[in-house]
Structures are given as C-alpha cells and as structure tokens.
Design brief:
With 276 residues, the chain is of the alpha+beta class. The protein has 7 helices and 11 strands. A hairpin with a 2-residue loop joins β1 and β2. The longest helix has 13 residues. The two termini are 16 Å apart.
Length: 276
C-alpha cells in the first residue's frame, strides 16, 4: 500500500540523509572537569526512574537536541531546538540537517511536531509539497523514533531511563552555569517499554524489537529538584545493513515556558508516495 510505504520510508528522512553523507565523505564534547563530592539524593536507580514523572510535574521546557552519527570513521551531527509540554506529551522542534558533502546545498530546517505515538514532519523534501506534513506512526518504526527523526523525543528520552537497573552517582558537575547531579548507567529498552507510561510504551516496544542491542549506555544530569537537565544516550543502529553509532543528547531548560502545539489538520497531511 502507498500509505504503508509513506509511513515506513517517510520516517527515515534524517537517518537516511545522514547515512548518505557518511557514505560520501572520507562531535558532543565530554563533560570535563572534576566533580565535587557530595551526598547522594536518594538511590541512583530510583532517581533516574522518576525523571519522566518529575518532568510531567514541571510542565514544560525549552529543549536543544543533537544527534551525532558515526560510520566508517566519519562523524556528522544533526541539531534541533524547540519546546516541549510534558503534561500534554507534545512538542515542536526545528531540526537542521548537516550540509551536503559538496558544500553547495544547505538543507532547510525540518519542522517536527512530537505527539503521543506520532511524529509530524514539514519540509520533508523530495516528493512532498512544501505546504504538506508527513505523519509517521512511531510504533511502526524499527527504532520507535529514538533516532529516525534526527532527534530523540524528550519524553521518550526520559522514559528510557526507566529501563536502568544499575546506576552510579558520579557527583556534582557544572552545567549551563549551574550545578547538576551526574548519573551514569545502562538502560534496557525492553525493560523501559514495560515500565513506560502508556503514551510511549508502543514506541519503546518497537525499538526493543528493532535495535540490535537493548542495552543503551547513558549519562544523565539532574537538578536538586530531580528535573532532567541533560541526557546523553548511545545507540547502535542498523541502517541499510550497516552499523551506525549514534549519540543522542537532549538538553532541557527554561522550565515552565508557555507552550502551545497545534497538530496539522487531516487535509494538510501528505498521503502520497514519498521519494527515497
């Protein structure tokens, strides 16, 4: 069916574009600095497990994202910026793809609307009218939209931490001019899917089936209220038969920012076949 092709192929826009760049050409810095010792704020596993719940209580925030992809010794980065409403589980991002290898064409930013179970994309590219949106069901994607859109949904990034079974507290570190508690561990995607809220359970369950490995190493930074300020996940993603190392970083700030996200009307959603 055309619609099935549209959903499965349309969602791979960012990953496909970047893997193409990697193939045709011959990344986030470490935290750095010593961290001061201080008293832990509860059991580290419990702290990171509660991250998604605490964000819901915070309401909303601004967000910056970066997704570094490496294959064959080449590294490229996709960057995004926008806002997210954790209570409504909706957000909006402007995602910028890297420049073409020749350095001639510059991609227009892709507008992404994040909603429970679905991703909407505008400026999708070839085959899609400029005034139309592409809608992708996250549960139909092999990665559950952890990497496909070029940015990990901030709520899904937090919910993935529910899959952590072993977490170490690394102490305090400076982050964006303030102090943050640094936690390091490994999350299991399947475990996270079973513990996740109903709105993101389907996406994580799809990722648990689609990724080669369920284990996802992470570094998470929380403030003294337990709000997630930054999280960096490291995935190993298979695209067109080749392994791509992916490091996805989500930064949250300006909590309580008023946010209104309007999903496109049905008449504005593209229903045709999307070119590769």
């Amino acid at each position: 069916m055309v619609v099935q092709q549209h959903r499965l192929r349309g969602g791979a826009v960012a990953v496909t574009a970047v893997v193409g760049l990697l193939a045709s050409t011959a990344g986030c810095s470490g935290d750095g600095g010593a961290v001061a010792e201080d008293r832990q704020s509860g059991d580290p596993v419990d702290v990171v497990h509660r991250a998604a719940e605490v964000l819901a209580g915070a309401g909303s925030s601004r967000t910056r994202t970066s997704m570094e992809m490496a294959a064959g010794g080449t590294r490229v980065t996709i960057r995004g910026e926008g806002t997210y409403n954790f209570r409504e589980r909706m957000g909006q991002l402007k995602v910028q793809l890297p420049q073409d290898p020749a350095g001639v064409d510059e991609h227009r930013p892709i507008t992404e609307l994040l909603s429970p179970g679905a991703l909407y994309m505008k400026n999708r590219g070839a085959g899609v009218p400029v005034d139309k949106w592409v809608r992708i069901d996250a549960a139909t994607l092999d990665d559950g939209n952890l990497v496909t859109g070029g940015a990990t949904d901030p709520l899904v990034a937090a919910e993935l931490l529910r899959g952590a079974s072993t977490v170490t507290y690394e102490g305090r570190t400076e982050l964006a001019g303030g102090s943050a508690r640094h936690y390091r561990g490994v999350a299991d995607i399947g475990r996270a899917a079973r513990a996740a809220s109903p709105q993101v359970r389907g996406a994580l369950a799809a990722a648990a089936k689609g990724f080669a490995r369920d284990a996802v190493p992470f570094d998470a930074y929380l403030d003294d209220q337990g709000r997630l300020l930054k999280v960096r996940h490291r995935f190993s993603y298979i695209n067109s038969g080749r392994a791509v190392a992916v490091a996805s970083t989500t930064v949250l700030y300006a909590f309580g920012t008023p946010i209104l996200v309007r999903l496109p009307a049905e008449r504005d959603i593209f229903a045709g076949k999307i070119e590769s």
